[in-house]
Amino acid sequence: MNIDLTLIPSTFDAVHAGLLATVAGLLGLQILFLTVAFIAFYRKRENAPATLPAEKPIAPTPMPPAPKAAIPETKPEPLRVKPETVVIKEYTPDAALQLLGLLQKEARFIDFAQEDVSQYSDADIGAAARVVHEGCRKVLRQHFVLDPVRTEPEGKRITLPKGFDAGSIRITGNIVGTAPFTGTLVHRGWKATEIKLPKITEGHDVKIVAPAEVEL
Q1: Rounded distance between C-alpha atoms, residue 162 and residue 97, angstroms
Q2: Closest residue by Cα to residue 197 from 47, 114, 96, 127
Q3: Does position 146 have pLDDT exceeding 60, yes or no?
Q4: 129: pLDDT strictly greater than 90
Q5: Which of 3, 23, 73, 160 has most Cβ atoms within 10 angstroms of its Cβ?
């Protein structure tokens, strides 16, 4: 490789002086950065502990003591209320059959109820109903004393208080809420205050409501 010495500048002008100053400045900055980095590294090394502190052993969490067996508390037994026994009364059919026999005897009640009245005119049915009505009324008056449940006239507005006897008063219509209720008395009702059925002789068969009749 041949170098042409004629190309090397022989004079030192301002341009070359500027280049030289730039190179010198960059070199100084590089030296300054290296020095600062060295000092920082050295200080960090001095401040660092020689050895890492040993980790403290983690003490095991003590187990809670086993709970003592709870002594069951002796509680008095609650008072047991014996449910009220509902007694269903059973009646013999003797009284009902005896009444049916009286209605048949005085009013021909069974004959009228068993008859097919569709073949008769209204006038004929009305005449027969009058006989049945008179006989039934006679039986009721002779053997029963009947009084109305309510003494107010029918059609009057009445108020039923809380706790009214639901066995003697039946409410109908739109029933909402609880008593007291206010409504119209549609029917006074009836209650038997006395019963006077005839005594039955021993050996009498009450199932024979009406004996058969034979004319000789």
Answers
A1: 39
A2: 96
A3: yes
A4: yes
A5: 160
